[in-house]
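Subject: two folds for Thursday's group meeting

Dear M.,

Sorry for the delay on this. The cluster queue was jammed most of the week, so I only got both jobs back this morning. I'm pasting them in the order they finished. Each block is the input sequence followed by the predicted structure tokens. Could you check whether the formatting survives your parser before we put anything on slides? The first protein is the one we discussed after the seminar.
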Amino acid sequence: MKPWLASAGAIVAGFVVTAAASTAMDAVMQAVGIFPSGPQLMTAPLFALASAYRAVFTVAGGYTTARLAPDRPMRHAWILAGIGFLAGMAGVIAYYMIGGEKLGPAWYAISIPLEAIPCVWLGARLVLGLRPRPKKPGDS
């Protein structure tokens, strides 16, 4: 496999893990009645819950990207974090353009891009922390 293809695959995989897990959890929360269905607005604590599990899934996305990266896992994670930040900012812009107050609190929309960078970084650090470090001369 060509290195650029493996790199792109690692980044796409991290994005898919984050997006698919978040979407699936939203559906589960709605199916079991924790989140309201239809046009009802969620309460602030429910938005906080959604923000929390999205953060966990973003860490998992960063972990996936770094784990699958053919080399320089943190570089791949930074690319994923940048993509997540830009996608989240697009959501913030859309929120304000369509009068998002009807959709939920502004802090929630803003939390999505703000979570991207530290959460992806943490996921990548978990991978790097798990890899054996090269021995330095004199180490036993």
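Second protein, same layout:
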Amino acid sequence: MKKLMFGFMLLILILSGCSSGSDYEFSLKQAPKQKAGESYPVVIEILKDGNPAEGLEFTAYLEMAKMDHGTIELTFEDKGNGVYESSVELPMAGEWLATIEGEADGSTFEHVITFEVEKD
């Protein structure tokens, strides 16, 4: 089962790597887990033309794919080398969507990443 889940997550990462109409590539490096009262890291890597994209400011809006728990807004900290990190406490495990919105080089970008959250 873990091999199947790993394969599924790898496929999601590969499919989410390209953003239409943008020079940026987004990949979820670490998905948060879910446990009541606990906050977990969310790590995103962003590349531009294959190189780490540093100094970006963006917001991610998280929402469950098939249930309405509202939207959770996250701001990310630039950790260097194209890696950005935030943390979140999620109400439940399951399929989630992260809509990433930001501005760079005078133009805006938006990208959606679908990911699976597991219970811890």
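Two things I noticed about the second structure. The first strand starts at residue 24 and ends at 30. The helical segments are 2-15.

Cheers,
T.
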